[in-house]
Write a structure and sequence with these properties.
single chain; 146 residues; 6 helices; elongated
């Protein structure tokens, strides 16, 4: 039994050029990843960080009482909503994506210190896998379209 493989040089070259273009300028894929990251940040506020690095430490009993007395029955880290709304793109270009929070006290929650650590930014295995899938799909699309 004989087998043969024929490769269309022009089509193969076009596919390879499409992938090279995508590697040189991954901005479209990074925009999709950015959209996903912002959804995950929002989800962290809804799930008390479960999707990022594990569930946040519970509020202290005294703070919880104070929060209830003042009428803020919202989830952890959501009182006025300012910090949640202050996540913005700092940079998005072919070299990468950077997101920041404009609130001064955000860092204290992100890394711990003056305030309890309640991480909002991070990368779980699921998040990394999704970002890689987005980038892989982007390169496959470019290869198919040349």
């Amino acid at each position: 039994m004989k087998m043969s493989l024929t490769v269309d040089d022009k089509k193969a070259k076009k596919m390879i050029e499409g992938v090279i273009k995508g590697i040189k300028d991954p901005t479209p894929a990074l925009k999709q990843i950015e959209k996903y990251q912002f959804k995950q940040i929002d989800e962290a506020f809804k799930t008390a960080g479960k999707n990022i690095a594990g569930t946040w430490k519970k509020l202290s009993p005294n703070y919880l009482k104070s929060k209830i007395r003042s009428g803020f029955l919202t989830p952890i880290l959501v009182r006025t909503g300012d910090m949640r709304k202050s996540n913005v793109r700092k940079k998005l270009n072919r070299k990468g994506l950077e997101i920041k929070n404009k609130k001064d006290y955000f860092k204290d929650h992100q890394v711990g210190g003056k305030l309890p650590r309640r991480q909002v930014y991070g990368h779980s295995k699921v998040m990394i896998k999704r970002a890689l899938t987005i980038f892989q799909d982007y390169l496959i699309k470019l290869a198919k379209n040349g």
